[in-house]
Each structure stands twice: as C-alpha cells, then as structure tokens.
C-alpha cells in the first residue's frame, strides 16, 4: 500500500538574508526531522492521524516556526494558539483556539477528537481540557522567542505609521501543518499556529476551523493551509479543494491551484500542502517561499524554504 506524507512550516518564510547559514540549516533539519517522525509512524503501519500529530509536534517544538515554541505574539504581547486535527476515515476532528498554556496544541486537538464531543474548545476551557488529559502545561512565556518579539515591535511601529498593510509575510505570519495517507488508505490532516503577529486578543484564524485551514476526507484529499486565515475561512479552502475533486472531478493539483488562485486575487500570502487518495502530493504557494517538505515513495526526504528543493537523504 502507498503511504504519503507532506508538511509545511508556513508561508511566512524569511528572506534568505535574514538568517545565517547555520540557522537556515537548522530550520531545514527540523523540517526533515518532522518528516522522519511522521514517516516512522506510517512505515510501521501506524495511522495517518498519528503520523500528522508526530510531524506537527516536531515543528511545534522548533523555534523556527510560528506554532508552539516560537509562536507569534498578539497585540497584548501574549501567545494565543490555534490547532486542529482531522481523521479522513471517520470525519472526526478535534480543535482548540486561543489557548495559552498547552505546550503541544496538536496533541490536545487529537485528545479532544478521541473524546468525540465537543469538537472545538476555546481559551481557558481548552487549556483546562489539556490539563485533565495529563498533557504538558507551560507558562505562556515558554512560547516566546527574540525573533517574534522583534516582529511584534516592528508591527507596532508599522501600526503607528500606517504601514501595517505593507508588512512582509515573514513579519506577520506562519503556521505548521501535515497531511498523510496511511497504509490502510486513510487520510488525515493537522495544523497548528500562533496566528499572526499583533493580532487582536481573541482573534481566531483558519487553522482550528475544520473545512478552512484543515480538512481530510478519505477518497478525496487531506489539506493543511497557511496564510491570511480570514480568507481561508471565507472560501472554506480545505473543503473547497475536497469538493472540487469530489463533485467537479478536478485532480488534486488542479483543485489546489484553483484554491490558491482564488486567494491570490485578494493579494494575500497563501499556501498549502495536500495529499490525494492515491498518495499524490502538492504544495502550492503564492508567497516568496514556504517552509515545506515531503517524502517520495523511494523514501527520499525533500525539504524546501524558497524555490529550490533539497534532498536530505533517506528517511
Ligand atoms: N493561517 C494562519 C492564521 O491566519 C496564519 C498563517 O498561516 O500564516 O492564523
């Protein structure tokens, strides 16, 4: 049976000159580590759900991506995290939004999905749920990094001088996500984010919204998005791609490209990774770059930040 895995670390990729070679190497190594973690689950016959969780966990723990440790600050200088996971075989899903104390929100989303009901918990209720589940609880400062602090300072200045609209994707955005097809033919998707820098407290993006930033349905596709969440919600991007495949007969590539084209009309940064029922992988984006990666059927780990794709050895 075919297995497949793809990840993204957000379309808010930094311009190449903004990090040292060592930092770029580390960011790529963390993408490769995420792929290896997810692939290890799939290769031993594990579920797509467990694979996407394993892959996202690595990126939540990495300083390089806007999710978990390294998440964006909101306008109050705090972190409010959103995450979700979906099982394409049952359409079960779990999601949390605006949580402040869960070290790995993707695992809390999976625990909530397994509980079955409710599907989405917000703020303190989400944090309390994770605590009852015995998941790691941290102080909000755990998520803070110097880079994100600088992003917040520059967005505050932009706000004052009226140039917030001109901020680069890297100053504002980022998200992590994974999509997988397991050996039983089941699809899953997971997404986790700090949202965007200087977002108003209480703002919830597309990442925890099933059908928008995250969607999985067996026989069609699994999708995880990154970019200005408000537009992913308006177009129900994940569900839109599944519907273009299911009802309009488009290929995964045609459907994903059409979704990105729709978003691009609004002059917003947008990207996604998606896997089809046959294991086809696509990773379109319209921004300068997108942290992304996938494993090809021959077991080669592919990682990219901008246009060039690097092979990082066998899985
Ligand atoms: N989609 C995320 C949000 O709107 C941010 C991003 O992916 O850049 O919260």
From TrEMBL:
One example GO MF annotation: hydrolase activity, acting on carbon-nitrogen (but not peptide) bonds, in linear amides
InterPro entries according to UniProt: Ntn_hydrolases_N, Peptidase_T2
Record bears the keyword Hydrolase: yes
Highest taxon listed in the record's lineage: Bacteria
Chain coiled-coil ranges: none
Record-annotated active site: 175
TM annotation in the entry: none
GO biological process, one term: proteolysis
Listed Pfam families: Asparaginase_2
Entry keyword DNA damage: no
Swiss-Prot/TrEMBL site (Cleavage) positions: 174-175
Residues that hold substrate according to the record: 203-206, 226-229
Keywords attached to this entry: Autocatalytic cleavage, Hydrolase, Protease
Signal sequence segment: none
Name of the protein this chain belongs to: Isoaspartyl peptidase
């Amino acid at each position: 049976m075919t297995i497949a895995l793809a990840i993204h670390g957000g379309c808010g990729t930094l311009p190449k000159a903004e990090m040292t070679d060592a930092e770029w190497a580390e960011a790529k190594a963390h993408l490769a580590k995420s792929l290896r973690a997810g692939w290890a689950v799939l290769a031993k016959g594990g579920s797509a759900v467990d694979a996407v969780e394993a892959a996202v966990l690595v990126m939540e723990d990495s300083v390089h991506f806007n999710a978990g440790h390294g998440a964006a600050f909101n306008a109050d200088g705090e972190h409010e995290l959103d995450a979700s996971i979906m099982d394409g075989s049952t359409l079960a899903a779990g999601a949390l939004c605006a949580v402040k104390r869960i070290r790995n929100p993707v695992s809390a989303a999976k625990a909530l999905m397994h509980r079955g009901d409710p599907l989405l918990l917000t703020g303190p209720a989400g944090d309390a749920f994770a605590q009852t589940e015995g998941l790691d609880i941290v102080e909000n400062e755990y998520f803070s990094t110097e880079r994100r602090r600088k992003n917040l300072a520059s967005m505050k200045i932009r706000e004052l001088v009226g140039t917030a609209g001109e901020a680069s994707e890297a100053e504002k955005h980022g998200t992590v996500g994974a999509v997988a097809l397991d050996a039983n033919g089941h699809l899953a998707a997971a997404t986790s984010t700090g949202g965007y820098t200087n977002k108003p407290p209480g703002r919830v993006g597309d990442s925890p919204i099933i059908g928008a930033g995250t969607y999985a349905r067996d026989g069609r596709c699994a999708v995880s998005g990154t970019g200005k969440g408000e537009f992913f919600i308006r177009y129900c991007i994940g569900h839109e791609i599944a519907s273009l495949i299911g009802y309009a007969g488009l290929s995964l590539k045609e459907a994903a490209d059409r979704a990105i084209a729709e978003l691009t009309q609004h002059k917003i940064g947008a990207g996604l990774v998606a896997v089809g029922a046959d294991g086809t992988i696509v990773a379109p984006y319209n921004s300068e770059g997108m942290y992304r990666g996938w494993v090809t059927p021959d077991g080669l780990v592919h990682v990219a930040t901008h246009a060039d794709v690097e092979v990082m050895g066998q899985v």
